[in-house]
Amino acid sequence: MNQKSNNMLPFELACYEIYDNGYDPLHTIMDFWSQHTITELQEILWVLFENYRKGTVQEDVADVKQMHTFLMKVCRVLMAYFLVHFRKIGIDVLPFAFAEPADVITADLEAKQRIHSFFNRIAE
Hints:
By secondary structure, this protein is mostly helical. Helices cover 73% and strands 0% of the residues.
């Protein structure tokens, strides 16, 4: 198997595991948010975007493996959200255990809302 095909295998497996017996998209979503914060997700996606924009190639094998693993988790959670939406699975009644306390998440969301409102007023 050539290197290009080898790199696609984990991605393909992530896309096809939704057909496994017992697959539960809600479990995938709950598992992701119990391990990762929204800030962590934003920071990692920003690093990826900047590396792509600058054409930077990551040389450290450990960092590449860690980034690849995280991106596969993001791919899985996106697939899970799609299935929840497509199959109209109720998600609102599930108790989520988030990676950070609810008051920290609320404070962060409120701060970002204030920043958004400020810049929105300037733009008008």
